[in-house]
Specification:
There is one protein chain. The chain is an alpha/beta fold and 341 residues long. It folds into two domains: 242 residues, QueA-like (3-Layer(aba) Sandwich), CATH 3.40.1780; 79 residues, QueA-like (Thrombin, subunit H), CATH 2.40.10.240. Helix content is 18%, strand content 28%. The protein is built from six helices and 17 strands. A hairpin with a 5-residue loop joins β5 and β6. The model has no long low-confidence stretch (mean pLDDT 95).
Length: 341
């Protein structure tokens, strides 16, 4: 199966640059994974597709303001640092631009010295390990100096950084938002709970690998970047009980899906615990837990389109995407949503 099998034409003007004023006012394309039938709805119509006894699974990771702008202490040359992965307390794997100015031993100053970072090593793909030093609490300094790491296809400035955060974001650690969750309001989630649908929380810290293009021709040669996930015992039990009692497990976003499929055994039982996952889901994959998916519209030839195609079939998905383009749906992070059931 080749990368080009997952290509489609997407006009630039359909890439959403700004979030809608009301989170839940986006459109919802409903795709029947068995028949390929399509319906055009509003996001709040999702409630009519949920049933008492179902379980909605959400990813409660929180995006950190991971983009920092600083200067080299010796030359005052400007440097941009993107925090990717916390290795230990003050040691981070980072993406540095321009990389050639960040050799081991380089000291970078941020916010007039409020925060300093020393390049310790160069690791996989040219990423830099940086050890930070500061006075006070790292998260508070980061909140003051850092910017939201918006995807490269969003060129507008984000006026309110909470709009690149779900309303249930809790655990710091993501370099990108689990964007399917951006459509939910607290009121909508309350309505869902009142219907008798349980809501289970999992955590997967989204890495920038989510935006990285697939550079090999045969998709089976592609290697996913690993991401850290946590499934608490009580949340695993909610999901397992739903399956035992004949309800459906509906994941909000590809990250929730990847978390459950990583945490489940071959018997489909979700195990509590934490760890790193580099699971790559593409057509031919047999889902162990997930029944339905709420997701956004993804980039052509991306691993996310491949995951969605594993659930609903490549032909059905590409036809739905063509329909979405025709109907001028908004694409990507701040765009409209899709329900695959």
């Amino acid at each position: 199966m080749n990368v080009s099998d997952f290509n489609f034409d997407l006009p630039q003007e359909l890439i959403a640059q700004d979030p809608l004023e009301d989170r839940s006012s986006s459109r919802l394309l409903v795709l029947d994974k068995e028949t390929g039938d399509i319906a055009h709805k509003k996001f709040t119509d999702l409630l009519s597709y949920l049933r008492e006894g179902d379980c909605l699974v959400i990813n409660d990771t929180k995006v950190i303001p991971a983009r920092l702008y600083g200067v080299k202490e010796d030359t005052e040359a400007k440097i941009e640092v993107l925090l990717l992965k916390r290795k230990e307390h003050d040691l981070w794997e980072t993406l540095v631009k321009p990389g050639k100015k960040a050799r081991p031993g380089t000291v970078i100053s941020f916010g007039g010295g409020l925060l300093k970072g020393t390049v310790i090593d160069v690791v996989e793909e040219g990423n830099r390990l940086i050890r930070f030093s500061y006075e006070g609490i790292f998260e508070e300094i980061l909140d003051r100096l850092g910017q939201m790491p918006l995807p490269p296809y969003i060129t507008h400035e984000l006026k309110d950084k909470n709009r690149y955060q779900t309303v249930y974001a809790k655990h710091d650690g993501s370099a990108a938002a689990p964007t399917a969750g951006l459509h939910f309001t607290k009121e909508l989630l309350e309505e869902i709970r009142n219907m008798g649908v349980c809501v289970a929380h999992v955590t997967l810290h989204v890495g920038l690998g989510t935006f990285r293009p697939v550079k090999v021709e045969n998709i089976q040669d592609h290697h996913m970047h690993s991401e850290f996930y946590v499934v608490e015992a009580g949340e695993a039990e909610k999901i397992n009980r739903t399956k035992r009692e004949g309800g459906r497990v509906i994941c909000v976003g590809t990250t929730s899906c990847r978390t459950l499929e990583s945490a489940a055994g071959e018997d489909g039982i979700v195990k509590a615990g934490s760890g790193w996952t580099d699971i790559f889901i593409y057509p031919g994959y047999r889902f162990k837990v997930l029944d339905c998916l709420v997701t956004n519209f993804h980039l052509p030839e991306s691993t996310l389109v491949m995951l969605v195609s594993a659930l609903a079939g490549r032909e059905h998905v590409l036809h739905a995407y063509e329909e979405a383009v025709r109907e001028k749906y908004r694409f990507f992070s701040f765009g409209d949503a899709m329900y695959i059931g």
